[in-house]
Design brief:
The chain has 292 residues and is α/β, with parallel strands linked by helices. 24% of the residues lie in helices and 17% in strands. The strands form four sheets. It has a six-stranded mixed beta sheet with strand order 2-6-5-10-4-11. Strands 1-12 form a two-stranded antiparallel sheet. Strands 3-7 form a two-stranded antiparallel ribbon. It starts with a helix and ends with a strand.
């Protein structure tokens, strides 16, 4: 066989293999697009989790600036749309951190629909708590499996007395921080019922952060018997929330959202001090969108 004929046959066989591969790839793409079990519509995570504080781990190097994705406005407008960006003060503050696992029974997925099948589109809120006892006791409780859904509990993050940030439940998951709860706004109340046997709550759109209770205030129920929180805790709390796109008016407390009449935390919390620090660690930057 002459070399020219041999080369021609090799080329034809190669073209046949390439054509077969192209056909298989096209078929696989079509199957993926038509498969409802993996389509975007079936994804239960409907809130923009970039709005929640993210776990930014410290290193010996200068921390990288971590900007969150902005939720796109459904209305085309020339008006400025604000987003938060972290500041130099944020970059200079470096709290210690820990990561602690939580038993899967104590947290779950965020739902795309409520118990009645109504689509959910609540914007994120941040709920502030306190542990009641030591940070270690709270973490130990979260790490124990609980079959009783009325007992299951967790936070997304916890801040110790020395300012250490303990990351517990990932922000894209639903922590069980506020059982019977409602978030009040000028437009009305927000709450979501995901279990027909339990009261509605804010858990589906909340990010829960707790402050460790000082030892002299264990099981305290009033400001008179509560010594308050450390400067390190206020700084770390502001630093953590500065990484989010949650506005100031959607940051609240367990006491304010609670409807059981039993929750009073965080006791003796200085909201003005916290907001002042938060505005030091993040600032609003307007983004102008040109309508088409």
């Amino acid at each position: 066989m002459r070399f020219k004929d041999w080369a021609t046959r090799v080329l034809l066989i190669s073209l046949m293999f390439i054509a077969l591969i192209v056909v298989l790839l096209i078929g696989r793409t079509t199957k993926l697009q038509n498969n409802p079990t993996i389509s975007r519509a079936s994804n239960p995570q409907v809130t923009a989790f970039s709005q929640y504080p993210q776990a930014q781990f410290q290193s010996a190097k200068e921390p990288e600036k971590k900007f969150q994705n902005l939720i796109k406005s459904p209305v085309k407008t020339n008006k400025p749309v604000a987003r938060y960006v972290t500041t130099q003060a944020f970059a200079q503050y470096r709290p210690s951190y820990q990561v602690a696992s939580v038993d899967p029974s104590n947290y779950g997925e965020r739902y795309a629909q409520d118990v009645n099948g109504v689509p959910l589109n609540n914007q994120p809120i941040i709920v502030l708590h306190e542990t009641g006892y030591s940070a270690s006791s709270a973490i130990n409780f979260f790490q124990v499996a609980h079959d009783d859904e009325s007992v299951q509990a967790s936070y997304h993050a916890l801040i110790k007395l020395d300012g250490t940030v303990v990351y517990l439940v990932p922000p894209e998951k639903r922590a069980f921080g506020a059982a019977n709860s409602v978030f009040e706004t000028p437009q009305g109340v927000e709450t979501v019922q995901t279990n027909p046997n339990l009261p509605a709550s804010v858990n589906n759109f909340a990010y829960h952060v707790s402050l460790e209770t000082p030892p002299d205030s264990y099981d305290a129920s009033s400001q008179q018997t509560h010594s308050g929180y450390t400067e390190a805790q206020y700084n770390s709390l502001a630093w953590l929330i500065a990484q989010s796109q949650v506005p100031d008016d959607r940051i609240t407390t367990h006491h304010l959202v609670d409807r059981s009449g039993k929750k009073v935390d965080p006791i003796n919390f200085d909201g003005n001090k916290f907001l002042s620090l938060l505005n030091t660690y993040r600032q609003v930057r307007p983004i102008y969108r040109v309508s088409k």
